[in-house]
Amino acid sequence: MPELVVKDLHVRVDDKEILKGVDLVIKDGERHALMGPNGNGKSTLLAAIMGNPKFTVTQGEITYDGKDVLAMEVDERSRLGIFLGMQYPSEIPGVTNSDFLRTAINARSEKPISLFKFIKEMDRAIKELEMKPDLAHRFLNDGFSGGEKKRNEIVQMMLLKPTLSMLDEIDSGLDVDALRIVADAIQKCQEETNMGMIIVSHYARFLDYLKPTHAHVLIDGKIVISGGVELVDKIDKEGYDWIEKEYHVKANKEEENTRPISLGSCGAKRRGF
Amino acid sequence: MERIYEDEFQDVLELKEEKELKILVSPHTYGNTRLILKEEGEYRIELAPMHSTSIHLFIQNKAQGKVRLHLLGDIQENADVKLGLLDLEDTDFELYESFDLKAPGARIELYTAQLCQDQKKKGDILVRHSSPYTYGYMHNFAVLKDGANYEMVANGTIDKGAREAASHQETRVLTVGKEHATKVIPLLMIDENDVKASHALTIGEPDENQLYYLESRGLSKEMALGLLSVGYFMPTIEMIQEEEIREKTREEMERKVGVYGH
């Protein structure tokens, strides 16, 4: 039974320490909701587990299935069974979804997947996510709406069959109907694979659908409280203020964008030339 | 060697010892030709599409030594030419193209797709609009690995009086290796007011976010770079009409750019 163990994890981005000692254990079949105000380290934790080179681990350990994850490259972590459904999936013009997914599937198996099996699995995922049938031939996330990109992350998850799936605000950009479709597909995938899950979401409705077995609140780079589904309900009703008071922590507020705003080019006509 | 096409045609040619070829496309004729360059040396291919014709010419370099290729021709009224060059070989290659859009309605679309490693690939392409209502588009794609040297001059020239001519070009160079050199010169020489013209140029490494995204799905760096390269070759490879040959060529390209890893 693969198990993710995160011990005393400290992570920096540039010169700023984002995670300040995170401990977490995820087992097969568990669904962990990771909550907290924006800018307090949720996405950083997932990115550090996946191995995003922009994030530097300065202290602590991550093991999965007893293996030292921090010693692995990003692709090795993926082939070990770890999947990250990204908040902002990259757009890659020139690379079709089918080419990309076949290459990704073949990268994790000794024998290449047959074209027939691949098409069958891809069709099934497309139907379950209620996406347009031409998905396979479109360039990867290129020109996709926000919702389409998120559904495409789940299509990839279904085809790659990870044993640990981390979903970073996969529900943002989805309308009410799409939310249900995506949640159903995730549930079904977990029933089939028994994968462990970490779900970052701000929407109680999404977590209602997915019914987490565990919940954690990450504030100022640390998990300050863990519990079950009752914690999700309480936060939905009362927000995070009570946690700050009760646990004597202060949430980081996201910095406002202070960049100057361009008003565009001047509409006045030049004269005298 | 001379080829004269009439009505409808689909042709495959291999050039070895014979290095000169003239293709004459009779009026109201259309079709496809696939041409393989088998041996090193200097080739000269002249295209003469008469009025109201359409020809798709796909050329693949398979020579194991240096090639110098001259492609030239006058495009007549309402003639439509699409020409693609695929060069995946580890050899020096020089390309000189010169086409003149001679009469109204003449169109030409040129594609080059080259994989470069430790060799010099040089291109000098001219599309001249000497008549009104003509259309030209040059698409040049290259993927540069270690030690590559790539040079491309793409020139769209619109003569006085060639009103409503459209001259477009794009050059995309992806650098995936070390110690490579690139020189790209896009030129638009315009001597008429009522025209459309554009050029686009990108030279650079793969986007680090794209690389991370692909690696996060289990692709090694080599495979990810290979996959990002595929899109540079496909528009040219898709010109191959025979499905089996097209798939084989695609596999060859994918293997050479590293999609299958080691």
UniProtKB/TrEMBL annotation, chain A:
<dbReference type="InterPro" id="IPR010230">
    <property type="entry name" value="FeS-cluster_ATPase_SufC"/>
</dbReference>
<dbReference type="InterPro" id="IPR017871">
    <property type="entry name" value="ABC_transporter-like_CS"/>
</dbReference>
<protein>
    <submittedName>
        <fullName>Fe-S cluster assembly ATPase SufC</fullName>
    </submittedName>
</protein>
<dbReference type="GO" id="GO:0005524">
    <property type="term" value="F:ATP binding"/>
</dbReference>
<comment type="similarity">
    <text>Belongs to the ABC transporter superfamily. Ycf16 family.</text>
</comment>
<feature type="domain" description="ABC transporter">
    <location>
        <begin position="4"/>
        <end position="245"/>
    </location>
</feature>
<dbReference type="InterPro" id="IPR003439">
    <property type="entry name" value="ABC_transporter-like_ATP-bd"/>
</dbReference>
<keyword id="KW-0547">Nucleotide-binding</keyword>
<dbReference type="GO" id="GO:0016887">
    <property type="term" value="F:ATP hydrolysis activity"/>
</dbReference>
<keyword id="KW-0067">ATP-binding</keyword>
<dbReference type="Pfam" id="PF00005">
    <property type="entry name" value="ABC_tran"/>
</dbReference>
<dbReference type="InterPro" id="IPR027417">
    <property type="entry name" value="P-loop_NTPase"/>
</dbReference>
TrEMBL record, chain B:
<dbReference type="InterPro" id="IPR000825">
    <property type="entry name" value="SUF_FeS_clus_asmbl_SufBD_core"/>
</dbReference>
<protein>
    <recommendedName>
        <fullName>SUF system FeS cluster assembly SufBD core domain-containing protein</fullName>
    </recommendedName>
</protein>
<feature type="domain" description="SUF system FeS cluster assembly SufBD core">
    <location>
        <begin position="56"/>
        <end position="231"/>
    </location>
</feature>
<dbReference type="InterPro" id="IPR037284">
    <property type="entry name" value="SUF_FeS_clus_asmbl_SufBD_sf"/>
</dbReference>
<dbReference type="InterPro" id="IPR055346">
    <property type="entry name" value="Fe-S_cluster_assembly_SufBD"/>
</dbReference>
<dbReference type="GO" id="GO:0016226">
    <property type="term" value="P:iron-sulfur cluster assembly"/>
</dbReference>
<dbReference type="Pfam" id="PF01458">
    <property type="entry name" value="SUFBD_core"/>
</dbReference>
